[in-house]
Each structure stands twice: as C-alpha cells, then as structure tokens.
Automatic annotation (TrEMBL):
One of its GO terms (molecular function) is oxidoreductase activity, acting on the CH-OH group of donors, NAD or NADP as acceptor. Gene3D superfamilies: NAD(P)-binding Rossmann-like Domain (3.40.50.720). InterPro entries: NAD(P)-bd_dom_sf, SDR_enzymes, SDR_fam. Belongs to the short-chain dehydrogenases/reductases (SDR) family. PANTHER family: SHORT CHAIN DEHYDROGENASE (PTHR45458:SF1), SHORT-CHAIN DEHYDROGENASE/REDUCTASE SDR (PTHR45458). Pfam families: adh_short (PF00106). It comes from Corallincola holothuriorum. This is SDR family NAD(P)-dependent oxidoreductase. It comes from the Bacteria.
C-alpha cells in the first residue's frame, strides 16, 4: 500500500462523487468520502464492508462553513494528495427568465462557487503535505460563455462561471506552493442531475477524469478541461 494516494471527495454518496470513490478504491487508494449524511449513505457503507482499511466516511455539508472547519480540524494531520470538490446542485429546473428568485440563486451560488473555495482554503495545509498536491473542482461546460449558444439556465451557468473564476485565481495564488488546480467538465453524465438521457455513464466519465487528473501538465493548470483532457474556452 506504500504507493497509494489519498483522495478526498465531496458529495461522495451518489452520482459522480460515488463513482470517484469506487474508482479510487479499485485502484487501491485511500479515500476520504465526505457527504451530508454518512449514516444514510448506503452505497458507501457497502463499499466500506469490502474496503475496510481504505475508506473513511465523514460528515460534510459544504454549504455550512462550520462543517468545513470542523472536518478540517478533525483531519488536521492528514495528507491529502487529491482534493476533489464534486458536490454541486443545479437549482430549480424550471427557472426561466421572469421566474428567477434571489433565494434560489444564492443557494446554488453557495454550493457551486463559494463552497469549493472554502474547502480549498480549509484543506490547503493537508494538500501541501502531499507530493502530488492536486485540487480539482468539478465545473461544467455550462459555465462557459463561449459555449453558451442556447441561453437560459441563468443560475447554474453563472454559478459554474464563478467557480471557474475561483479556480483561475487559486491556480495563480497556489502556484508558488506547487499546488496544481483544474476545473473539470465531467461530460453529460447519467446521474440524478444529468438525467436518464445523458450521454455517458458515471464510470466512463470518472475513468477518463482520473486519467486527466493523473497527467495534469503545466499548460492545463488553472484551465477548464473536458473529461478527455482538452481545454474548454472560458
Ligand atoms: P447528483 O445530483 O447526482 O449528486 C450531487 C451530489 O452533491 C450529491 O452527493 C449531493 O449530496 C451533493 N451535494 C449537494 N449539495 C451538497 C452540500 N451542501 N454539501 C455536501 N454535498 C452536497 O449530481 P452529479 O453527480 O451529476 O454532479 C456532481 C458534480 O458534477 C456537480 O458539481 C455537477 O454540477 C457537476 N456536473 C454534472 C453533470 C452531469 O451531467 N451529471 C454535467 C456537468 C457538471 P446529497 O445526496 O446530500 O444531496
């Protein structure tokens, strides 16, 4: 187990987050799986029965700064090789022009843009302990201005665009600490958020993203990358 990495994942109880947990466990890595209600995370508990010594489960509501601080204190001596900010929400699906509410917008912003920054901030020391020193934020092509040809989705698009701005600044600020950070678009993925018509499975998305994360090069730092590693324009 000497060559194994330690990966921390937020929103690890279902969807893309759970697929990351499964993938890294299969690779023999150590996984710190974080979710709002570990007691109810039945799929994580099933994985724990198989991978007893590799999987830790922790409570983390990324919307609550005190929850982030509590976990950072609890894991203060941990080494985190790869920190994956995956937790995210879409917000109300029917939110069209004329029906946008400030309250809905603030909630989505909190989870998608503010929380990843607070998590990176709180766990910077643990990532700095690692040789790999990687942070990842799961963003979305829907946050790209260049890619927006259909309008709408004001809340989700703007929250992911804000997340991309956060990633760019973190990349510059953390560069001298040798911490590499990227925003990753997972593809249109079959999850509760992506829906049944989505194009790819969580396995395909995550297998591909894990390869991209393992091979981040200098030119990719601070960019938004597709799940196949190609750069997506802002
Ligand atoms: P799901 O809706 O299937 O899962 C979302 C996950 O985020 C759940 O584990 C959920 O936990 C968690 N979460 C939400 N809010 C919080 C919170 N406050 N604290 C902790 N965890 C929280 O979505 P996906 O798996 O599809 O999405 C994962 C990421 O990928 C998101 O950032 C999303 O924006 C992004 N993405 C997804 C795409 C897709 O096609 N699926 C496309 C582009 C980007 P809980 O069960 O407690 O609600």
């Amino acid at each position: 187990m000497t060559n194994s990495s330690t990966i921390m994942i937020t929103g690890a109880n279902r969807g893309i987050g759970l697929a990351f947990v499964e993938k890294y466990l299969q690779q023999g890595d150590q996984v710190i799986a974080c979710c709002r209600h570990p007691g109810e995370a039945h799929q994580l508990h099933s994985l724990k029965r198989i991978h007893k010594d590799q999987l830790q489960m922790h409570t983390l509501d990324v919307d609550a700064p005190e929850s982030i601080e509590q976990l950072a204190n609890k894991l203060s001596t941990a080494r985190i090789d790869i920190l994956i900010n995956n937790a995210g929400v879409y917000g109300p699906k029917g939110s069209v022009l004329g029906e946008i509410s400030q309250n809905d917008w603030q909630k989505v912003f909190t989870t998608n843009a503010i929380a990843p920054l607070l998590v990176c901030q709180a766990f910077q020391q643990q990532v700095a302990q690692s040789q790999q020193k990687i942070m990842v934020c799961i963003s979305s092509k829907m946050g790209s201005m260049a890619d927006n040809s259909s309008g709408g989705s004001y809340i989700y698009r703007s929250s992911k665009a804000a997340l991309n701005a956060v990633v760019k600044s973190l990349a510059l600020d953390l560069y001298n600490h040798e911490i590499k950070i990227v925003a990753l678009h997972p593809g249109w993925v079959q999850t509760e958020m992506g829906g049944a018509n989505a194009l790819i499975s969580t396995t395909k998305s995550v297998d591909s993203m894990v390869r991209v994360i393992e091979n981040i090069d200098e030119n990719q730092i601070g960019r938004m990358l597709n799940y196949d590693g190609t750069v997506i324009p802002w």
